[in-house]
Amino acid sequence: MTEFNPVSVTKLASIYFDGQVTSRKITFTDGSTKTLGIMMPGEYTFATVEKELMEIQQGSVAVLMPDSDTWQNYKAGQAFEVMANSSFKIKVHELADYCCSYLND
To answer: Which of 18, 48, 51, 52 is spaced 20 to 30 A from 79 at the CA atom?
Structure first.
């Protein structure tokens, strides 16, 4: 899917890590949400509340999941899931464009 219809977009961006990561929230008519964002090269730790599906649209990253000591590589066209109420580390190798879906199981 290359576009979402119909949606509303939150104008104010969420800005993290001194501007190195930004995102904007989109809301669908059924109330579900996603965020679309950019991550600059660097290493970051994110905490989750809901289960998340992170789709890498462009760029490449390595992810360290909770309770793992092995980094997994992801590039454009690939995705990974993160459990609710956890955290994960991500190393952004080159500017990464991402879409994060919040999965309410």
So the answer is: 18
Structural contact between residues 40 and 15, judged by C-beta atoms closer than 8 angstroms: no
- Partners of residue 35 on adjacent β-strands: 25, 100
User: How many independent structural domains does the chain possess?
Assistant: 1
Q: Which domain holds residue 93?
A: 7-103
Q: With a threshold of 0.85, does the pTM exceed it?
A: yes
**Spatial CB neighbours of 28, under 8 Å, sequence gap ≥ 6:** 4, 6, 7, 34
- Whichever domain contains 67, its CATH number is 2.60.120.10
Mean pLDDT, contiguous 10-residue spans, the chain (105 residues) = 88 96 96 96 96 97 95 98 96 97 84
Let me know if residue 1 belongs to a domain: no
Q: How far apart are CA 31 and CA 55, in angstroms?
A: 20
Whether 2 is in a domain gets the answer no
Residue 57 within any structural domain of the chain: yes
Residue 6, C-beta contacts closer than 8 angstroms, at least 6 positions apart: 28, 29
